[in-house]
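Worked Example 4.2. Consider the chain below.
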Amino acid sequence: MTLIGRTRARGVETLSLDAPERRNALSAALVGELADALTDAGKDSGVRAVVLTHTGNTFSAGADLRDPPAPEALVGLLRGIVELPKPVLARVTGHVRAGGLGLLAACDISVASHAATFAFTEVRIGVAPAVISLPLLPRTDPRALARYYLTGERLDTAEAARIGLLTAAGDDVDEVLAPILDGLRRSAPEALAETKRLLTARVLETFDRDAADLTALSARLFASAHAREGMTAFLERRDPEWVV
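Applying the procedure from the previous section yields the following structure tokens:
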């Protein structure tokens, strides 16, 4: 079963997360397939840019609690997006939760329709947004991120854009994307690659410095008693025991 759809038009490769029955949760299989698709696009001289989008009403619900990827695999995927020598754009028309927000932050440009919503829900199931912090912390407002990391509150597109999680939003996401893609198609491929390298240098410094520690933190928290209770409560559609 293919979990990533692939189409191409005028040099733009569109990769679609295609597991809508699981709300495009980041399973080990989906993460591996997406990483391979990005690698292929990066090596293909016919690809000018990559658009990452989704089927169904959810861009990604975060880690698949039944088949989660290894933290190292998620680090590799996020770094692969940041390092890809082609611009990567997120196209969002649905909900984004937890690990899915790491994908948005890793992308060079992220646009959404006003139907989208966002939330860092990790603390509500007993873990922390550890690995996804690698691209998020260098690119978003730290005071706002503290609030949303600690509370799990939902953000709308206006707030997501204000804090740097989104580049732009509109009623019609394809209208928002059209001039951006036109600009990329008019840009020289080598110039795009070098310009992206300038823009991502600080993000990659964070990966180099913190990836090992945050990977270890993620593994420790996912193995904790609080995480077991939080995940069980989530799957059983009840409040975890710590809710007061």
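Residues 189-222 form the longest helix (34 residues). The beta strands are 4-9, 12-17, 49-54, 58-60, 88-92, 95-97, 109-113, 118-119, 154-155, 168-170. Compare this with Example 4.1 before moving on.
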